[in-house]
Amino acid sequence: MGPSWVAGAIAAGPATMASLIAAGASFDYMFLWVVILSAAAGAVAQFLAMRLGLLTERGIVGVVEDHVGEGWAVVLVVDVVVVAGAAQFVIMNTAASVSASLTGVNARIWGVVWGIVLAAGLAGRGYRFIEFLSKALVTVVVLAFVASLWVVPVDYEAAATGLMPSLPAGSGLIAAGILGGAVHITLITMQSYTMRARDWTVRDYDLAALDIGVSMLGAFGVYSVAVFLVAASVLSDPELTAIGAGKTLGPLVGDSAGTLFLLGLGGAAVSTLGGNTVVPPFLVADKLGWGTSVSDTRYRVLLAGFALVSAAGAFIGGEVISQLVLVLALGTVGTPFAIAIVLYLLNSDAVSEPPSTLANAGGLGLLVVSGTLAVNFLREQVGSGIDVLSGTVLAFALLLGVATVVSGIKYVREEVLV
């Protein structure tokens, strides 16, 4: 196994954790159903992306360019670069802050250190390095949060009430953040490239499906539920910071819980940094006609450059939890377009075998859910007043919304009405 563990490493990151903390601290156990749904939805999204990658044996940008059009490929690349780039800076800020909290060394120094480590490791050793790192760190992170459940008093009877679907007022941003951690444009678009790096073909279909089940349904699902239950059980401050959550657990339920939480947060940040770093270079290199492995010097330089530039995230400052939730919600805004493109290609002549009715239904369900959450998020942002940041997000969302609708019309005209 391997490729889906890289996606799982990104999904099981500090941005997802920030949303889970905010949900648990603000609404107790009410969002447990969303947490479980996110793991299932993430598995469906990865399954669809896996089918496209295996059946075409190409990167998604090249397939879009050939079968949908060059302009659509450009929109997809811009979508990923904007979303993944914003996430990279905020996640670096988180990794540096946690490292500083655990060691006492200035966060900005840690940002430079992590940037150099990423550049040397990824550009020097390539995909196998990030896959090994993802497997190791995701395992450690999951174990850390499962261990936290042994020292945190969880009311499982009360938690069971959270299985009933409900969306209280003012929860759109948090719900979008939780789902956005699992159903995210970076995870969907990277799958074809990571499978190519492993030389997987359609003959590896069963292994690829197992890979998704173990990493997304298994590891990511356990991670999400464990973090949420810990937060919902003992945290009650909606304004609590991500690092502050770990420190708060110490006086409440013992120093071991606080330490485990911070170690889990740090591991999640580093694993997500590694996985997220490779995504924009994959798509940009594919669009430029370059190779997507370190054997191509141009790709190697692009990868190292993105890793080093991300060190600037440690200089952002500010509270990371609100930044992380907003970044995930921004990903939710960009994700419907990626899902629409994948469904378009899977039901076109780009692949030799169309997906089953059940797979298409799952994809359409993802499109509806992610689109609804994106609309709810934007409505809340507009309702609270439009500033430069929310206005930029709104413009980005409108552009991608129009692109998603037009892609649907294009598919109907070219594939259904012909």
What does this protein look like?
The structure is a single chain. Helices cover 80% and strands 0% of the residues. With 418 residues, it is mostly helical. The longest helix is centred in the first third of the chain and has 34 residues, at 70-103. The mean pLDDT is 81.
How would you describe this structure in keywords?
418 residues, mainly alpha, 17 helices, globular
Query: Order of SSEs, N→C?
Result: HHHHHHHHHHHHHHHHH
- The N- and C-terminal alpha carbons lie at a distance of 41 Å
Helix fraction, binned, reads over 70%
Query: How many DSSP helices?
Result: 17
User: How big a fraction of the residues is strand?
Assistant: under 5%
| Shape field | globular
Give the topology.
Layout: H1 3-11, H2 14-27, H3 32-56, H4 60-67, H5 70-103, H6 107-125, H7 127-151, H8 156-160, H9 172-182, H10 185-197, H11 205-234, H12 242-253, H13 255-288, H14 297-309, H15 320-346, H16 357-383, H17 388-416
